[in-house]
Amino acid sequence: MSASPLVEATDVEKHFPLTRTATEFFGGHARRVIHAVDGVTLTILPGETLGLIGESGSGKTTLGWLVARLHEPTSGTLRFAGEDILGLRGTALRRWRQNVQVVFQDPVGSLDPRLKVWQIVGEPLRAQGELSKPEVRERVHEILPTVGLPPDCLDQFPHEFSGGGRQRLSLARALSVDPKLLILDEPTSALDVAVQAQILNRLVELQRERRFAYLLITHNVAAVRYVADRVAVMYLGRVVEVGSVHGVLERPIHPYTKALLAAVPVADAKRRRTRFRIGGDVPSLVDPPPGCRFAPRCPFVIDRCRVEYPALREIPGAPGQLVSCHRAEEVIDVAPASLLVTEGGPTPAAAPAV
Amino acid sequence: MTDAVVAIEGLSIDYVVGAGRFRAVSDVSLEVPRGHVVGIVGETGCGKSTLAQAIPRLLPEPPATIGGGRILFEGIDLVQVPRWKMPQIRGTGINMIFQEPLNSLNPAFRVYDQLAEAVHIRQVREMGRASVERPEPGPFDYSRRSNPTAADAWSGKVVPGGAVPEVVHRRQVDQQSGLSRADLRKEVLDYLRLVRINDPETILDLYPHELSGGMRQRIMIAMALSEKPSLLIADEPTSALDVTIQAQVLTLMKELIEEVNTSILFISHDLGVIAETADELGVMYAGKLVEFGPVAEVFESPRHPYTKALLRAAPTRYKTDGPLLSIAGNVPNLSHPPPGCRYHPRCPIARPLCRVEPGPPLLGVEGMSPSHRSACHFPAEVPQIP
Question: Are A230 and A243 in contact (CB under 8 A)?
Fold first, then answer.
């Protein structure tokens, strides 16, 4: 663990202001803000995969974009390999960009339909502006086989590829400049199980060969389980739990993590769930209340949760796992399955009265 | 097996695109028993959504054409029913929930208007008013290729007073049947409470864009169930939702199945969702149904190599446990399907016979329950695939 972190994000916040209506403007109301990312501290080590899970609206994509400097944070600091990247401008920023590349979720929308494969995959190379056109083509020719595409498809267009093929193109484009960190934003959520398995396998092999660090942003717990070394769970702009993949997925502490894991449908027809005990929707990010953001849906909520935000802390019994819950010590032994009632399987008795 | 809500027999659906024609669904036979949930899984492009939309005849025809087979719904062959009569069957007979709730709700109408329409249709039908047979199609027959234009009306081709159907205004029906607006509103509220929406009075006056994804899907479910259909087709109803919301919606659907007593055809690519909801499971590959059986048995002991591969591909392990088992190769192009069994290019147990002989029809498998059928030449060898 002595390796110096590749990415260090400290108290990063990103707020998106909402436009005020005329009445609000003249009535002197303050501008309302969406707290998309609200004070997140994270590190990514070289060569490791950090999985970022959470539901839509939890701010995980915004955080990924912040790390890639596609958004400017409202406050906080971001360091990459020890260097403060928020001060980078112009040429220095463009040079830095070859360190971090993003694979986007939508394999159709993220590829320009009018460009040929070599132009798409070679675009980051051309943006760096060091290689001539034949050199770019040659480099693309070398890269395509590493993602499992035939090297002779240089002059094809993206529509000639299947969904999986397009996602491979997107991956090849990100790999073309040999980055240190790849941000994978839902890389497989548009794909079928079989194709998803191919892509995930390829990602893991590539990481073994070339020591990339990955920031894997997804709501797919199964993909995180397979690819990640460490996992951070986000809820409404805040990280509620961080730890090793085994720790977080096998022994989740935060009630939200438990709920999330319990909600994932299991491909096992013998354990059928009948009832899910977490009600409600993800609340609005506009001016969220103080206190724990999960409090309105949490089955273990106490009065303190509604007023005081629980800081991320390590608790005895789970070394290396940080959790933001006032009652972490009490709920640590609650099994995720007890948030469900299963059909057939051993029915957990009434809610553990913690 | 006689008490099936819908029985599909040898159904084939072709798409005619330009000069080409390809068979998206070929020779599928399937039954949805009354009160059961039948799940259909398969990869993108295997024809599962085409099948789902073909049953209520919602496929645009052309480009789609039904190439053969029958869809028996409560004894009526839907393939033979003229398109203009289908609206009488949709709604109270067959209803559908689509994948994207935002696209299937009308953004210009409040929740109340959309739900009330569905409830009203059912109320009117229950009074025996809806199934008025039109003697012959009027000038504005939406099942025709093109409706009359303004020029036709000018030249006198559309004769008013000819075969124009009697237009019954909603208010007229209300007056005749004694249904009041207040009753309608009360029933709409009941359905919103049924799908566990808190504060239904406020929700009624909102527009779809003001609701969250889970709420919208619950409104869709309320709309579908309020017509008390005998068959509900759910095409990826939870794929656009987050897992915790998905779990809520699935539990809700399961509770409602019992309350309303509906049969469901549940289309999904998520094996976990199917494992949780379905009683029977059908697996489709390249337009064919390759395996069908009780869900627990298919998961436990699949008898088609494709089913097995699909089940194994779901990521359930950590990377330290070794690579995931993916399926080599790609889904075949349906305009040129491979000869023989369609799965043979990717099949680990393919033999020369599989390359020439098309996959057999769904046959019973030895040692399995009688409803478990597989379309493989060598079902007994499937358990030996690593």
Answer: yes
